[in-house]
Design goal:
Helices cover 49% and strands 11% of the residues. It has 828 residues and is of the alpha+beta class. Strand 11, helix 26 and strand 12 form a beta-alpha-beta unit. Helix 8 packs antiparallel against helix 28.
């Protein structure tokens, strides 16, 4: 058999283009520079204890005490133990590190989908660049949302597997679906995967309806079976992470309610509702104007730190007030419905134009998936600005109420729009659409696009006030006239940006539509049209993308490491050789910053999924100044602002230490009374116990006499020595996570039961005499999940290898491709 190498030339060319384009955009990466990403900086802070422990011992800890009194480490470091599918990420990235490698991966995956859809290779390259360099992806990377970006990057592979299965290539479809979904789940942003599969329901329904009409239900059944098998293997490959994550989620703000909601009142926290509280979940909801940012990037100001110039109205206002700025600086121009944003979710004016064209040219179930999926995700992104619709989804769809920031669903839209756009162009360039139909679709799509752009360029600047309700707040207590001058400058700059970006989109639409029109009319050949569209697409998306992520954002690693350089207060605290105590830092955003976690075990920190019980302590006690709760959490040091604003250290003599014995036990009937008891009981002597543990303590008659001291500290293994004259109840200043979720207590090597006390801590009966007590975190589901991951991921990889080998051995002789035809004129 002869291997047809020539058929791979376009694909190798595509790969080369993707590499060149990524290297061009991310050139500083290859000189050792990195980006100071907010979320990544937070990750470095919260994960420092885990990294230091691994460097010292070579072992992975499964628990960390760096934030919020303690939490599972697999909610900080993504668990991939046993998952060999994850290793394929390096292959798709061409073994190039992010960011360049990740954007290559996104383009490769999209290109594969387009080729499988029968699209011209060169047109597929344009679509891949449009998807890969969508502004949202650049903004995500700049902000440090790397798991979200990785998840989005692999979604085209998931769609590719579905496409193949529905086209009767069941085996390859199931394998590719499993591989794609396995990589997607390994990226560990389940929210994006969930949103994508909401749109997949539309695709599946469209395929089912089509098969019913064509009387081919057995085919649909085979495709469904192939996808289900592939999907189960994908889920299995990620079991070591998904299983423990699901278990953890039940105890977080996204889980079942703990506290009882008072009658005739609305919920005041996520602890009183199943899942997240509606208001909290919907904070990042688009308004109607935000949606148009997908077509006109600056329609609502772009970003909260939007690049502008000293010649802008805002820059001129600052100069007049004596506040000098450089020629280029960032200004708070965003005035849309979100609290703030790093940048718009811009799909590209050209992609939106041809998406509209595709609506009138593309046929079949995939069209309805892309069209209705886009509409559905846009409606979801409106959140509480379309309350009736979204409250129904929030209350009805399983798991939907576990997620927040509804505007992020447009990350999925940024995949759907370029797919239909490229398919629409392919209908024209392949000759499938006759001339009259192609011109009509182009006229409608171009007309709608141009009308929207003209409206925002000419009419809209006179309709809106361009004021953000938060404008005046950011200028503090300045003179009212000064504030008014600055607010007016901001409004005028926002209006100018709306106008200029609308004209920009209008010009891009006119140029792209014009080239395609002249192609249809036989005035231009296909090659120059493809080149022209490619150049325009790169100009469009690179031009907007570089507003939010450009070469100036790259820094030397040394400049970033300075962010975690210990302050004088950190150095002072670190002189304490006690292996385990906690710190409260009031000089940072205590519960939204992980900076201090780099050096200390913190009461605060930052994580999107805190344990609900700890969040309740924050809401009901810590933020209200209950010193007793901070004492029971062993808060030994406070970092507070000094007389001149410099941080200073204050030691807390009331910290209760790692463990203590109590002389009284108060059994309470429910969680509300349990947490309220922390307000008035002397926690150094009394323990609050929920009635579910009554049988554990009902025979105890504690005296509080004796001692428990910590003898060895490891993040996931704590060793103590106890000494008591009789059986006592010890309270440990460690966060309760259970029951049966990994923490096991041992006395002299024998496993024993422990309970929850004081709403969020651990309690243990200790026997008379001197004993060794150990708390060790070894979640059974993690280790079982690791085994499942190994088996499932190897099955997927071996199936893929076997299919590739079989295909090469059975490859038919190469057939020369037919030349592309022009659109046909419609017959009368």
């Amino acid at each position: 058999m002869r291997f047809n190498l020539s058929s791979f030339v376009p694909h190798l060319a595509a790969l080369g283009i993707f590499i060149v384009v990524s290297i061009f955009y991310f050139t500083p990466q290859f000189s050792g520079k990195v980006i100071e990403q907010g979320d990544v900086m937070g990750y470095r802070g919260m994960s420092q204890e885990l990294r230091a422990y691994k460097d010292a011992t070579g072992e992975e800890a499964l628990w960390t005490n760096a934030m919020f009194g303690g939490m599972p480490a697999y909610q900080i470091n993504t668990v991939s133990s046993g998952n060999y599918v994850k290793n394929l990420e390096r292959v798709v990235r061409m073994y190039i590190k992010p960011p360049a490698g990740q954007f290559i991966a996104a383009m490769v995956c999209f290109y594969i989908l387009m080729v499988l859809l029968g699209v011209n290779s060169w047109l597929s390259i344009i679509g891949a660049i449009a998807f890969g360099f969508a502004t949202n992806n650049l903004v995500l990377f700049e902000a440090g949302h790397e798991t979200k970006l990785r998840t989005i990057s692999y979604l085209p592979l998931v769609a590719s597997g579905m496409l193949l299965a529905f086209r009767k290539r069941y085996l390859l479809g199931g394998i590719l679906f499993g591989i794609g979904l396995g990589m997607d789940l390994a990226a560990n942003h389940v929210q994006m995967t969930y949103y994508f599969f909401l749109t997949v329901l539309i695709w599946g329904a469209a395929e089912l309806i089509s098969n019913i009409k064509n009387k081919t239900l057995p085919h649909f059944g085979k495709a469904a079976i192939a996808l289900i098998i592939g999907g189960l293997l994908a889920l299995g490959s990620a079991a070591s992470n998904l299983w423990v994550t699901y278990e953890y989620a039940q105890d977080t703000m996204r889980g079942e309610p703990i506290l009882e909601q008072e009658a005739s009142t609305t919920p005041t926290s996520s602890s009183e509702v199943n899942g997240l509280d509606w208001d909290y979940a919907m904070q990042w909801s688009n308004n109607t104007l935000d949606v148009f940012s997908g077509f006109i990037p600056g329609v609502v100001g772009g970003g909260s730190a939007q690049p502008t110039t000293s010649d802008s109205p805002y820059g001129q206002a600052l100069r007049r007030l004596g506040a000098g700025q450089g020629k280029n600086f960032d200004a708070p121009l965003y005035w849309g419905g979100l609290p703030f944003t790093s940048g718009p979710i811009y799909f590209g004016a050209i992609m939106v134009l041809f998406f509209l064209v595709g609506l009138f040219l593309v046929e079949g179930p995939i069209k309805w998936w892309l069209a209705l999926g886009t509409l559905f995700t846009i409606l979801l992104s409106l959140g509480n600005n379309l309350e009736g619709f979204n409250h129904f989804i929030f209350d009805t769809f399983p798991l939907y109420n576990k997620f927040r920031t509804p505007n992020s669903v447009l990350s999925v839209t940024s995949l759907l729009i370029p797919i239909l756009a490229i398919l629409g162009l392919n209908e024209i360039f392949s000759g499938k659409a006759d001339k009259a139909k192609a011109i009509r679709a182009l006229a409608i799509g171009g007309g709608i696009s141009a009308a929207i752009a003209l409206f925002f360029a000419v009419v809209a600047p006179g309709m809106f006030d361009f004021v953000n309700p938060r404008d005046a707040q950011q200028f503090g207590q300045a003179d009212p006239q000064v504030i008014q001058a600055l607010v007016t400058g901001l409004a005028d700059t926002r209006a100018d940006l709306m106008r200029s970006d609308a004209l920009r989109s209008l010009i891009l639409v006119a140029l792209a539509a014009g080239m395609v029109y002249f192609y249809i009319q036989d005035k231009l050949k296909l090659t120059p049209v493809l080149i022209g569209l490619g150049v325009l697409t790169v100009f469009d998306l690179f031009g907007v993308g570089m507003r939010y992520l450009n070469q100036d954002d790259f820094k030397r690693p040394t400049s970033i490491s300075q962010y975690f350089a210990p302050r004088a207060v950190d150095q002072q605290i670190l002189q304490d050789k006690d292996p385990h105590y906690r710190v409260f830092d009031a000089t940072v955003n205590t519960f939204n910053s992980a900076q201090s976690s780099y050096h200390h075990k913190m009461i605060g920190g930052y994580h999107a999924a805190k344990l609900q019980r700890f969040q309740d302590l924050i809401d009901r006690h810590i933020t209200r100044g209950n010193q007793g709760v901070l004492d029971m959490l062993n808060t030994k040091y406070f970092i507070i602002p000094g007389p001149e604003g410099q941080p200073t250290v204050q030691q807390n003599p009331g910290a209760l230490g790692n463990a203590w014995l109590v002389d009284s036990i108060v059994v309470v009937p429910n969680a509300n009374v349990e947490i309220d008891g922390l307000e008035y009981l002397p926690l150094e002597r009394a323990a609050v116990v929920h009635q579910e543990f009554d049988s554990y303590v009902n025979t105890l008659k504690p005296t509080g006499q004796g001692a428990v001291r910590l003898t060895e500290y490891r993040p996931d293994r704590l060793t103590y020595e106890s000494n008591a004259a009789q059986e006592e109840l010890a309270v440990f200043s460690e966060i309760w996570y259970g029951p049966d979720k990994g923490w096991q207590a041992y006395i002299d090597g024998n496993p024993v039961e422990h309970i929850r006390v004081d709403y969020a801590l651990r309690g243990l009966k200790i026997p008379e005499g001197v004993h060794e007590i150990v708390f060790e975190f070894a979640p059974r589901k993690y280790f079982l999940g690791k085994t499942i991951s190994t088996i499932s991921s190897l099955a997927l990889i071996l199936a893929l290898i076997a299919f590739i080998v079989w295909t090469i051995k059975n490859q038919p002789p190469a057939v020369a491709p037919e030349p592309a035809t022009k659109p046909k004129s419609k017959k009368k």
